[in-house]
Amino acid sequence: MTLVPTFRGPVGPAELGPTLIHEHVFVGHPELDLNHPHPEWDPDAAVEQAVTALTRLHELGIRTVVDLTVLGLGRDVARLARVAERVPVHLVAATGYYTSNVLPPFFRTHGPGRLVDGPDPLVEYFVRDIEEGIAGTGVRAGMIKVVTDEEGFTDDVARVFTAAAEAHRRTGVTVTTHSRPDLRNGLEQLAFLRERGVPPERVVIGHSGDTDDLDHLRELMDEGATIGMDRFGMEHVLPDDRRVATVLALLRLGYADRMVLSHDAACFSRMTPPSWRAVHAPHWHYENIPRRVLPMLRAGGATEADIHQMLVANPARLLAPAEQLDDRGRPRVPHTGPPPSGMWLS
Predict the structure, then answer these.
(1) Residue 227: DSSP 8-state
(2) Residue 322: predicted pLDDT
(3) In angstroms, rounded to a whole number, what is the distance separating the alpha carbons of residues 134 and 12?
(4) H helices within 111-239, ranges in order?
(5) How far is CA 97 from the centre of its chain?
(6) Which partner for 98 in 72, 128, 205, 292 could form a disulfide, CB atoms 3.0-4.6 Å apart?
(7) What is the DSSP secondary-structure string of 24-69?
(8) 3-class SS at 9?
């Protein structure tokens, strides 16, 4: 059976259970953290806070969290492994590069036709993270993360996407994106990846829940992509009641099999530290979906089968590498069983 890599080793897709597929634990910046530490950042205290937060999340019924902190966001898998060994939820790591414009100077001199000629190191990094493990930890990546924003497909961003597509072709691992739905750039992302051999069924267009433009979201899903309704709690961008209304409208139109739910939250993020979040985004944390959003969805008419599809079946399908195909060559949805009675706490 195709297995999904986690921090504690590979598991079957059916073992993942309710999954938050787009989260972070620690987001930082290595040079700034080394030279100008943030006053709210205490590495040891942060580990303890993460252990507490993820243990509470398990008590609320969530069984797996995908950490999409990749290069460019201060990824430290060794630190996160200290958390993973102490919490009951499965943690899944990611590879990729987070930049919306340019890569660090190293990449200007290294790669095909460059001063230090050779294969693109991005492809090497992504594939090694997936097949061998990250930074000598043995923790293998289970998703590939890429970004476009208002700058569009700059030369370096296109290079990252191209490397991600190559890594997908070699490994079957799903590509997930940071998109800007107000710019409708998820369609550009999908087209770019598809032209380079990534089937739409293996792409998640992240942050799609930042809009309630149903026509745009339906266009993405009708092309075959899954959309990330993955910023619940970011009410400074769009209130949760509008995010919920969008999910409900799409459920009524029959798109349960093309949506995933998450927060894009973090235990600590240098970009939006805890003191800022407490004032400006008090619901932006891991517990928002099980405590607030699921009751809102149920009250609006979402069924347990809908919730199971979005939180269990869809993530299991996406996290199982693409070698698991049906007789038409499409990714097979792993059997994850009926919605478990009493799983969803309010």
Answers:
(1) E
(2) 87
(3) 21
(4) 121-131, 155-171, 186-195, 214-222
(5) 13
(6) 72
(7) -SEE--HHHHHHS--TT--HHHHHHHHHHHHHHHHHTT--EEEE--
(8) coil
